[in-house]
Amino acid sequence: MDGWRISNWKLIAFDLDAKPLVIKGCLLHEKGEKRWINFPSREFIKDGERKFINIIVIPDSDTYWRFQAWCLAELDRIISTPIAALEPEQNNIPF
Fold it and tell me: Which of 69, 72, 53, 83 is nearest to 14 (CA)?
């Protein structure tokens, strides 16, 4: 994912700089041993049940799984790096 980077991360929400796009509001999800990244989604009600549809998709399965692996590894790197060592634009925690 050359030229891509994670920025403006806060706990489980982050922005993905995928030049020339910036995708705001990506989310890290965890359930049991599984972890995955979701792009921003839109909520809707169907048959009285709350559902979500992704606004952005990666239709190619190989590219999707490469993205997941890259993004999870990059988040792990950021989370394990001391704040002072991060790039200045990543060091924008509001407290």
Answer: 72
